[in-house]
Write a structure and sequence with these properties.
The complex is a heterotrimer of chains A (about 230), B (about 400) and C (about 400). Chain A is α/β, with parallel strands linked by helices and about 230 residues long. Chain A contains seven helices and ten strands. In chain A, strands 6-7-8-3-9-10 form a six-stranded mixed beta sheet, with helices on both faces. In chain A, strand 4 (about 65-70) and strand 5 form a beta hairpin. Chain B is of the alpha+beta class and about 400 residues long. Chain B has helices at about 1-10, 15-55, 65, 80, 115-120, 140-145, 180-185, 190-200, 220-225, 235-240, 240-250, 250-280, 280-290, 295-330, 360-380, 380-385, 390-395; strands at about 55-60, 85-100, 105-115, 130, 140, 155-160, 165-170, 175, 185-190, 205-210, 230-235, 330-335, 340-345, 345-350, 350. In chain B, helix 2 (about 15-55) runs antiparallel to helix 12, helix 2 (about 15-55) packs antiparallel against helix 15 (about 360-380) and helix 12 packs parallel to helix 15. Chain B is elongated and about 105 Å long. With about 400 residues, chain C is α+β, with helices and mostly antiparallel strands. Chain C is built from 17 helices and 15 strands. Chain C has helices spanning about 1-10, 15-55, 65-70, 80-85, 120, 145-150, 185-190, 195-200, 220-230, 240-245, 245-285, 285-295, 300-335, 340-345, 365-385, 385-395, 395-400, and strands spanning about 60, 75, 90-105, 105-115, 140, 155-160, 170-180, 190-195, 205-210, 210-215, 235-240, 335, 350, 355, 360. Classes of the chains: A alpha/beta (about 230), B alpha+beta (about 400), C alpha+beta (about 400). Chains in contact: A-C, B-C. Chains B and C meet through helix 2, strand 2, strand 3, helix 6 and strand 6 of B and helix 2, strand 3, strand 4, helix 6 and strand 6 of C.
Chain lengths: ~230, ~400, ~400
Amino acid sequence: MKGPVFTLKGVRKVFRTGDEEVKALDGIDLEIRRGEFVAVVGPSGSGKTTLLNVMGGIERPDAGEVWFMGRRIDTLPERKLSDLRLQSMGFVFQSHNLIPTLTAEENAEFVLFLRGVPAKERRRRVREVFSALGIENLAGRFPSEMSGGQQQRVAIARAVVGNPAVVLADEPTANLDSENTVAVVDLMLRINSDSGTTFVLSTHDPLVIERAKRVIRMRDGRITLRR
Amino acid sequence: MLLLLAWRNLRRNRRRTLLSALAILLGVLFLILTLEMYDYLLVRSVEESLGTVRGHARVVRRGYLKDYSPTLTLDSLPASIRKDPEVVSYSPRVRAFALLSGKEGDGGAQVLGIAPEAERRVSSLLSTVKEGEFGTLALGRGLANLLGVSVGDTVRVVKMGGLGWGMEAFPVKGILETGSPGQDAYLALGKIGDVRRMAGIREGYHEYILRLKHPFLALKWKESLKVPRGYEVVVWQEDMRGIWEIIRLWWVFKVIMAAFFYPAVLLIVFNTFAMAYYERKREFATLLAIGIGRWRLFRMLIYEVMLLALTSIALSVPLSLLVAYLLNRHPIDLSFVITNVRWEGLYISPVVSAALNPGNYVLSSVLMLLGTFAFGIAIAVGVFRLDVSRTLRERVI
Amino acid sequence: MMWLKLAWRNVWRNRLRTGIQSLLIGGTVYVGVVFHNLALGNYRNMIRQATRMGSGDVTIYDTLWFSTRRPSRFYSVAPLRKLLHTPEVKTFYERLYLSAFARVDLMGFPVNLVALDIRKEAVDHPILKGHRPDKEDGAILGRGLAERLHVRKGDRITLTVRDAKGELKTLSFTVDGILDVPIREVDCCSIFGDIGYVRRSLRYGDGAHEVAIMLKGESPERFARKVNRRLPPNLKAYTWREAMRELVSAIAMDYSGLVLMMLFLYVVVSIGTANVLFMSVMDRTREFGVMRAMGMKPRHISLMVALEGLFLGTFATAVGLSLALLTNLYLSTRGIDLKAIYSLLSQEGMTYGGVVLEPVIRSTWEWKGTLGYSLFVVILSLLASYFPARYISGIPIGEALRK
């Protein structure tokens, strides 16, 4: 049995807008193991994005514990969290994922640049990943010159180029048509099976859900179903 | 309703609005204070100059000012001038040009014979006596230094008189400081009788100095004045033509100053509004789609610009007034670092203060309003060209 | 390199916004550089005129004469002549300043008699240029004085004046030239005569009140220091800055106007740049959120915004400076002709700080100020990025991603 990548114990997160309180996460207990391909599903406002953000150290929970690779991360200072995300996590968002002023290749290279990888090495690895994902033809294009599906493929390439332990993808196919959705999910599945990278993605797209190896259903900040 | 909407729109992006408002506020503040300071320098220098030696106007025998011939005297001030309602007061003077000889050296001087009582009503010349008292002779500080004399010493006066030149000794009664070193090196005062002797005349005066109600309208007054035959009236503007022309064209200078200060501010306002416009293009298209007219939308945008300008100006004007008032009450005298400077015969003292001229506030505010209005129009006309259906289809970046 | 590329491209993402701000920054540099060089060109002209007419680059005075102008404080020039025969000295002028009473028939006026080597000074003296009296008793005077005394060229003027021993003497001159000078003190009251003639007639020997030294290019301060070490205690070499304090003040007063304006423009540029950078970072809040999620640290974000400010400032400054230098090239060769404005204000010519202003102003090339005005704008643009950078790097990532 592979060890856990994420362990969440009694995680709560409340957002306040004026007098109103929204329980985004309401006592979440969850364990995700290495190499899993997990889909977090549920309607809008069910807490999917917040769950991913808490896992990624983007938001801190109000209560509970978040463990990543055997290390408690919800109490880590911001600087260490940044390092952790840089070294061990990859992110894919729903839209406006890419830095518009950098080309596809430069976008992917940017993560390695932040890690301090030398320029030559950066370019070699980016080319490698682009060719593995079959998107070499997009290398020199700016985001504004690519379709939504192409942009998401580049975003995935950027997320995995640094060999992270986990990729957190927040509704990565929300703006894509069926054909592109299938292509993007298959790409993630291929990386998952080839390199063992753990994928946690939020979605409400049936095409994604039926391909996921594990599904966690959420409603009102609680996990209602684990499959 | 449109005004309310405009006001709320301004509050939507407060930081941006505040920075633009700050730029307008500072622009108006800087311009007002600069104009106030320049006004003070110019007006004060002119007033000081007129208040001592020069006077607002003088009446002389025709031809006297050409060569200062001592024999061209007048007895009394013609009634038509004396009774003119514009004339506040007048005082007779006698003038002699002489070489004064002291313990250490000689110096040329213009000696003015004055009648103290009348002179006090016309000028502050007597209050410039800083040491000793008025009498024959009271010497300018620079002149006394040159001659090497002080109060109580004797000065010999080489002068023209009767049929030729002669010499006469006078005691030094006082030392005066008019505020302009050049003048102090050349000026001496004395009693009328003594100065008449220096000038070689027995009676009469060389000129009458007038104090007018409205010195800056002296030229106009002169035009309407009936000057008796044989007399000549010279107003200060004719004596100081260069300075008067500068004063007359002062408003041009002010507009030029605004032309330097305001474009920078207006560019910021333009930039902010252009950005606000592009960000809200989709919103405008929606408003147009639901039936708000283009003209109404245009008006709303203009209201926004003008509200911003008016609010900033409304804050800037009292602030400028406060600073100007403080400067006016507590002028900063820089004479310990810089000396007086001559400008077209006028002595400008290095004093930083403000004139409190309402015109500066009006001019600065109106020009800023006009500027923002023009720039506002340049942006707002965009609504007349806005393609509603295309804008609604566009992806908002 | 990646930071630079990213910052440069970000600056140009909104071309209109960047363009307008560049116009403001570039315009400020342009105004600063052009007006600085133009003002300095004008001041140099004023200084040149004043030093040739009055004090020279360096002048030697008796210290008491300098403060009182007493004619008795003259000094012998012979020991100085040797001292002044050095390679730094282009030429020097000896002058006597005496108060006299000028008489013609029954008209009499006190005058300043300026005794100098007219033939030598006529070469580049701003008022005496071209006047070379034939006789040694030839005098040149202002039109105002000539009218007061009713004299024309060729007439005789008698001066009553004290000689070197303190006795009153009479000295006659023949009017050789009448000057049209807008400087009132010269017009009404000065007579220029030959120093040799005056010295002989008034027993001044080789005496002078003023030795005005024109230097070849040496710093007046350094030269004055050098000369002062070798002068007797009653004499002192004054630089033109010390000798003509009114001119120095006039320049300071005039230049303070430009400084005031530049100060204002700098404040406005800073506000404008901060405004543009604020707009720019707020538009990209989500993008910064994505970058932070990827592992970018707040200091990286600050660095990027600072670089954007720096690029904006540098680019606009480069454009503004280039245009300013082109304008300066034109202004330094052709100049601006203000004759029309001056003649509107004063028919005789404008005077300021005791100097007649030249109607054609030519700018100069003063690099310290030129680079100073430009660099300062770049630094301000960088500083203006501080608040936007702090603001955007301080937004929590989750909040930024929700925008």
